[in-house]
Write a structure and sequence with these properties.
4 domains; Beta-Lactamase; six-stranded antiparallel sheet; 433 residues; 13 helices; rod-shaped; alpha+beta
């Protein structure tokens, strides 16, 4: 219907932006175009009330009809106005809903296109929305994540949740933050992530937007370089075997799952003795001081394979009894890894690593420790070579001193003092490094 003067009750009301009344459609000029429809439907009189939005914009008209020539009473006119207002509210609500839906569509179009994992959480730490990147990182669906507390995605024992909650509160107040967060996905795999916190507004509510990136590979690469550098420094500084073993234990305990451990060295009877330890109680150390040659623990070490009690998706992780023994549970050890150090096919030492905070060992840590075992073996092989070279040098030096004295004594009668002095000077030069 056209919005114009004389185009029925509704078209005219919309044009005038005022109520229009037609007492007789068949005689009023405004009803001329609609007489056939009125006759077919038994309509005779009509009224139209314009509908306005909250900003005064015209939304439409509300029309009412009567089967006879009729003049609306004052009460009926008020009812018509009320109906117009109610209709305006319904239309406005529907338009707002449509705009909100469009906004959501636009928001999710942008939100979902970002490759990083994004989590929107409220001030209490509960998840309000996530993007597909977050679903991929966590292994949970959007529906599973919404309403859950962020700590449900963290590895127990590897994160300080109290401090993170403080960081979230600071971010809400306008101070962005970033830190490393050990995550745990739907399969139970744990892995390090780099997390950034930013304040935002999500449909009128102040929130924290968390972006998270899996840094397993980056962290492992950096860790390998750091370990190789530390071992090279220890060897270059002339560290003795005891010093090198202490360095090796300290390096192994850098992995976040572990907070205690020890080094065993092969004994003459092919058993193993604990020679270095850290973070273990005296009672526990006394109980595990010696592994006899025929013990199960010695056999595990001699097999030369890295095994653990609780690593995800690792074939070697089959011995869950490693942490079920009484002395281990009494020590409150929740995870255990046995790292034999094999040189020339023989397990000459072993590093046992234990953790009291978490029962899981990440795949990244397991793979890194496998590589670390070979690095340790190479370091001990190089130390053996250095020690052998030093022994050889000492033997040669002693032999040369003996030969020097013998030569000097043999020729002293047939040689001038000047010649003897030259030989002595030459000998001194040979001994000077």
């Amino acid at each position: 219907m056209a919005i114009a003067e004389g185009v029925g009750a509704s078209g005219t009301a919309a044009f005038r932006k005022a109520r229009v009344e037609i007492q007789n459609i068949f005689t009023d000029p405004k009803g001329q175009a609609f007489r056939q429809i009125a006759e077919e439907n038994g309509l005779f009189a009509g009224w139209a009330e314009p509908i306005f939005g909250t900003a005064g914009e015209l939304l439409g008209t509300f029309a009412a009809y009567h089967a006879e020539e009729y003049t609306a009473s004052h009460e009926q006119q008020n009812q018509l106005a009320l109906a117009s207002q109610l209709t305006a509210m319904i239309i406005s609500h529907r338009q707002n809903a449509d705009r909100l839906e469009d906004s959501l569509t636009t928001f999710h179009g942008i939100f979902d296109s970002i490759s990083e994992a994004l989590f929107i959480i409220d001030a209490d730490g509960k998840c309000m929305d996530v993007n597909p990147g977050a679903e991929k990182l966590s292994g949970f669906t959007r529906q599973q994540l919404i309403g859950k507390h962020y700590s449900r995605l963290g590895a127990a024992g590897l994160n300080n949740f109290e401090q993170i909650t403080v960081n979230i509160a600071k971010t809400i107040n306008g101070t962005p933050d970033s830190f490393e967060f050990w995550a745990r996905d739907a399969t139970g795999r744990i892995f390090p992530t780099s997390v950034k916190l930013h304040v935002g507004v999500y449909f009128g509510q102040q929130v924290v937007i968390i972006s998270a990136v899996d840094i397993s590979e980056t962290k492992a690469a950096a860790q390998r370089l750091e370990i190789e550098n530390d071992l090279a420094k220890a060897l270059a500084s002339g560290a003795q075997r005891d010093e090198l073993l202490s360095v090796m234990l300290a390096i192994a305990l850098r992995f976040p799952e572990f907070d205690s451990g020890g080094i065993y060295w092969e004994t003459a009877d092919h058993g193993y003795q604990l020679i270095r330890h850290q973070g273990l109680s005296p009672t526990f150390v006394e109980q595990v001081q010696i592994y006899p040659p025929d013990s199960n623990k010695s056999q595990i070490i001699r097999n030369g394979k890295v095994i653990c009690s609780c690593c995800d998706e690792i074939d070697q992780c089959t011995d869950f009894s490693l942490v079920s023994q009484e002395h281990i549970t009494t020590e409150q050890i929740r995870c255990l890894l046995i790292l034999p150090i094999v040189v020339d096919g023989q397990a000459i030492a072993c590093i046992n690593l234990s953790g009291k905070q978490t029962s899981k060992i990440s795949r990244g840590s397991f793979v890194a420790l496998q590589t670390l075992s070979s690095h340790f073996a190479q370091a001990l092989r190089r130390l053996d070579a250095q020690e052998e070279a030093n022994r050889l040098q000492q033997n040669l030096s002693g032999l040369f001193n003996t030969l020097r004295d013998f030569l000097l004594c043999s020729i002293c009668k047939a040689t001038s003092f000047t010649t003897i002095q030259r030989l002595a000077n030459y000998s001194a030069m040979r001994r000077t490094p």
